[in-house]
Amino acid sequence: MDPALAALGEFGLIGLIRRQAARRSPGTLLGIGDDAAVVAIPESGKLLMTTDMLLEGVHFQRRWARHRDLGRKALAVNVSDIAAMGGSPLYALLGLGIPSSGIALDELKALLSGMEEEAATHGITLVGGDTCRSQGALVLSVTLVGTSASGSVLVRSGAKPGDSLWVTGVLGGSAAGLLALEMGFRPGVTWPAGIDKPAWLHETEEAAIQTAMAAHLTPAARVQAGQALVGCATAMIDISDGVASDVGHLCRESQVSARVLADRIPIHPGATVMAQLTGRNALDLASRGGEDYELLFTATTDPNPLLAEAVPDLLATRIGDMSGGEPIARLVQANGVVEPLLGGFDHLRGAA
């Protein structure tokens, strides 16, 4: 173990975290330092709670992910869950499994700084957590508590036959970014040695690869968009496992069928570039790649006027519609061929 980290010890590390964690949520009555945090109950009377883990070797590789970025992402993926409910994030708890070797105190400080940067973006206070030694790799487990300021909560079970199916932003960027990182690309670095650069690939394409890596390493949670969609969306979910999987969740919870139009799925430019570079299918990256953290939702009216007021640079695209029948999703190819929309990521089965 890093001598500086060993000298600091567990309680010294907790003290460091306590000093670094800024109090932002007005309902924080008692934060780090006691057996439990104390927070005020929101006026709406509704709390939203979620938790996500990032496991080294499963969700990230430290050989290409900066520790500051890991801290940001560990919180952002939880914020995205609150956003998908139309809520506001407030309080976070951090479970930190520290490997006995291979991580330095300065790297942990960078990780915590990244988490605080993400917390500042959304007005979140880190109010507690736990630290322990991991016998294997680095483990980051975040629990996030939020509230529904309006009193209304968006769920997965509200879709009805006749609703249209929408998605914010573009898809496939995270999957393309991961593919680029696995090949040896790195953020801010010119073309990697050992990879032939094709004649068709120019500055625009290189920039698209860089934005794809950024989408994977530091995703942005759509909190403002989620809040704007309360009262417009009938059901919503964030895209963590891929459209193919997450549309299926909406279908099962709402007991409706979905028809997704392949040529309407908005594809990230980086996914188009990486597909051409590697022989992969860009639509496959966009529909099955996962970790885009955009919002997938159903609605009866065009949501773009509402989004234009809340997030002017964000566009929602209608990618299909919902109907009665068996609660499954079907993909309609550009040539009219209809097939089951399968795939996405399952932690016990892997990627499909």
Describe this structure in words.
The protein is of the alpha+beta class. The protein folds into two domains: 145 residues, PurM-like, N-terminal domain (60s Ribosomal Protein L30, Chain: A, 2-Layer Sandwich), CATH 3.30.1330; 188 residues, Phosphoribosyl-aminoimidazole Synthetase, Chain A, domain 2 (Alpha-Beta Complex). 35% of the residues lie in helices and 24% in strands. The protein contains ten helices and 15 strands. Strands 8-10-7-11-9-12-13 form a seven-stranded mixed sheet. A four-stranded mixed sheet has the order 3-6-4-5. The protein has a two-stranded antiparallel sheet with strand order 1-2. Strand 1 and strand 2 form a beta hairpin. The longest helix has 18 residues.
Main pleated-sheet profile: 7 strands, mixed
State the low-pLDDT regions, or none.
Answer: none
The name CATH uses for the topology of the largest domain is Phosphoribosyl-aminoimidazole Synthetase, Chain A, domain 2
Question: How many beta-strand segments?
Answer: 15
* Amount of beta strand: 15-25%
Give helix % range. 25-40%
Taking all Cα atoms into account, the compactness measure Rg is 21 Å
Strand order of the largest sheet: 8-10-7-11-9-12-13
Tally of individual domains: 2
Q: How far is the first residue's CA from the last residue's CA?
A: 38 Å
Concise summary:
The chain has 352 residues and is of the alpha+beta class. It folds into two domains: 3-147, PurM-like, N-terminal domain (60s Ribosomal Protein L30, Chain: A), CATH 3.30.1330.10; 164-351, Phosphoribosyl-aminoimidazole Synthetase, Chain A, domain 2 (Alpha-Beta Complex).
